[in-house]
Amino acid sequence: MFRDWKWTLLTVAVLIIISTLCTLAMTLFTRTLIDGYILPLSQEAVPDFSPLGMALLKLAAVLLVGVFVSFFFNFLMIKVEQGIIKQLRGEAFDHLMTLPLRYFDSHSHGAIMSVFTNDMDTFRQMVGRTLPHLFSSVITLISTFASMVVLSIPLTGLSLICAAGALVVAVTLSKYSRRYFKGRQENMARVNGYIEEMVSGQKVVKVFSHEKEAENGFKSVNEDLFKSVFKANRVANTVMPINAGIANLGYVLIAIAGAYISLHYGPEVLTVGTLVSFLTLHKNFSRPIAQISQETNNIAMASAGAERVYELLDEKSEPDEGHVTLVRQSDGPDRNDFFWQDNGKLVPQQGLVSLKDVDFAYVPEKQVLYDITLTAYPGQKIAFVGGTGAGKTTITNLINRFYDITDGKITVDGFDVFDISKPSLRRSLGIVLQQTDLFSGTVMENIRFGRLDASDEECIAAAKLVCAHSFIMRLPEGYNTYIGGDGGALSAGERQLLSIARTAVADPPVLVLDEATSSIDTRTEKLIQKGMDGIMKGRTSFVIAHRLSTVRDADYIIVLEKGRIIEAGKHFELLDRKGKYWELYTGGSL
Question: Tell me, what's the pLDDT at 114?
Fold first, then answer.
């Protein structure tokens, strides 16, 4: 903040000082008004009010300056606070894009969203309101204290005793408030996460008539939020009344002591104007202390929010130590002419993928894969079959380094995947996931997401290749039809077709099809199978599917069970063995 907004903040600091001094001038003028004008004029037979008028005009000019600088520094602080939050959100989002999938597996989407909304908003309020108020309060305290010492040292001592009491209250209560405010932010994240889950799973909630249970679940997390907010605000809102009471008690004591001094020692020691000014200064002195006490609660709340923001920023980015990159020969006639670039040397990209003695565990205490060894030669179609949780998808996630292996080795065209830069490795793999993710935008933009420099003609050709062109042309505006997030207006099969077209336009050397036709009916599957075969032609393909149409013609079928390869071979070879594959096939589980 001070690095990027140094001069703006210095300007704000100067303006706050000017504004505070203008307010102080008005307070001190009370002494002059009473002792220099009102009392002398009250003793004159024919009073001349012109000197008083001129003094009031000067005071008005000073107050106008105070109003102007107050408006201006508030305007500058709005610019600063919004600029800082814009920068912080940008940094947080950029960092979010670098985090590994493990982070998203362990944090709900609602909790992540809460960091960008609630937590950053508390930080914004601290920057835009709390910091200027604190600085203004400190300047007011210093200038007011100096003025009080000049007016009356005995009364200043009495005022300091009251201020010390208020400070003790503020420090004591702030110790409790921070803990409660942190709980408030955490419970707010839980509420957001719960709402996000229930909204995204609304169909499931309704199908199973789970509305009442969902309501009860929300009431529980909402009750926790209520309790934490109540406790935090109860502590925070106690500070102001207590400090106000201490300040009022001090006001009474100073008034009594000042009146006694003035009456017994005369105006030579303490004039009426001085006493009135001092009482106003005491109020001004107590108000910043109460304000600082209140702002400490805001700081506690902002600290809790900032702590969650910095937890996100402190998360380690996905490591990428690879130096081998994938390049395409831009001036070559073949668009599939890929090369690996290793220290200036170009090695043809073939699609040879090998796994040797690979072990993997998502968490150390639960191993998922054991001794996985296989080789996919260029142009081969490798199919993975097995029950749910057998490790089919996990293997493909290791090839593209969504997760890193625990032991063993994975190579692509002879290069260890740890030596290949992750963007290059993933650019060489076209993936169609079981879950389709579309984005807000046109159909054309969603297809082009696979390769941003693809032309309209290339996007249309990709759609035709996977038989998506016909349904796209039936949409209201064809390829320019706008679809919302996740393509809610499209059927599951249509969304999957767009996802496959996106992969086709990426023109990757290696394909991973994770149950790519699971959401497509049999008739649609037959229509796109020819297009899928065209995409896979000449490319190494890994296919995870339950349908026979994507398994029978595979060059090699890997049968997995509990994270181990138990069978491998061609379709008819595996049937002849009458092992696990035969059981799955004859039982219709494929």
Answer: 84
Give the span between the Cα atoms of 91 and 98, in whole angstroms. Answer: 11
DSSP labels, 520-574:
S-HHHHHHHHHHHHHHHTTSEEEEE-SSGGGTTT-SEEEEEETTEEEEEE-HHHH
Across 462-488, average pLDDT: 85
Q: Report d(CA 132, CA 135) in Å as an integer.
A: 5
**Cβ 580 vs Cβ 559: under 8 Å:** yes
Tokens of 553: 């013609």
Residue range 297-312: mean pLDDT, rounded: 82
Looking at the structure, tell me whether residues 399 and 449 fall in a common domain: no
Q: Return the HEC string of 325-391.
A: EEEECCCCCCCCCEEEEECCEEEECCCCEEEEEEEEEEECCEEEEEEEEEEECCCCEEEEEECCCCC
Mention every residue, 6+ apart, whose C-beta is less than 8 A from residue 142. none
Q: Long-range contacts for 161-168 (Cβ within 8 Å, ≥24 apart)?
A: 161/250, 162/246, 162/247, 162/249, 162/250, 162/253, 162/282, 162/286, 163/250, 163/285, 163/286, 163/289, 165/246, 166/242, 166/243, 166/246, 166/247, 166/286, 166/289, 166/290, 166/293, 167/289, 167/293
Does some domain include residue 44?
yes
- Indicate if 530 and 483 belong to the same structural domain: no
pLDDT tens-digit readout, 38-91: 777 777 777 778 887 888 888 888 889 988 998 898 888 888 888 888 888 889
Q: At 213, which CATH number?
A: 1.20.1560.10
Tell me, yes or no, whether 142 and 247 share the same domain. Answer: yes
Residue/partner pairs of 577-583 with CB below 8 Å, 24 or more apart: 581/385, 581/557
The answer to whether residues 477 and 581 belong to one domain is no
Task: Count the alpha carbons within 13 Å of 105 in the hemisphere toward its beta carbon.
Answer: 7
pTM value surpassing 0.85? no
Question: Quick check: helix, strand or coil at residue 456?
Answer: helix
Q: Specify the DSSP element, H or E, that contains 160.
A: helix 153-200
Q: Tell me if 310 sits within 8 A of 95, measured CB to CB.
A: no
Q: For the segment 344-399, what is each residue's pLDDT rounded down to a tens digit?
A: 888 888 889 999 999 999 888 889 999 999 999 988 899 998 888 888 889 988 99
Burial (Cβ within 10 Å: 0-12, 13-18, ≥19) of residue 552: middle
DSSP 419: T
Q: Identify whether residues 386 and 294 lie together within a single domain.
A: no
CATH number of the domain bearing residue 414 = 3.40.50.300
Residues 240 and 369 in one domain: no
Residue 536 tokens read as: 């896979």
Neighbours of 147 (CB within 10 A): 19
Domain end position, chosen among 314, 333, 356: 314
The token pair at 119 is: 């937590």
Residue 381: give the domain boundaries. Answer: 324-428+508-590
Q: What is the pLDDT of residue 162?
A: 81
Asked whether residue 435 is assigned to any structural domain, the reply reads no
Q: Are residues 272 and 131 in the same domain?
A: yes
Do 131 and 73 sit in the same domain of this protein? Answer: yes
583 in any annotated domain: yes
**What is the count of structural domains for the chain?**
3
**Which CA distances in Å does 470 have to 200, 463, 464, 466, 505?**
30, 9, 8, 10, 17
The pLDDT assigned to 360 comes to: 94
What is the per-residue burial (b if ≥16 Cβ within 10 Å, else e) of 82-91?
eebbeebbee
Residue that is last in its domain, among 274, 294, 314:
314
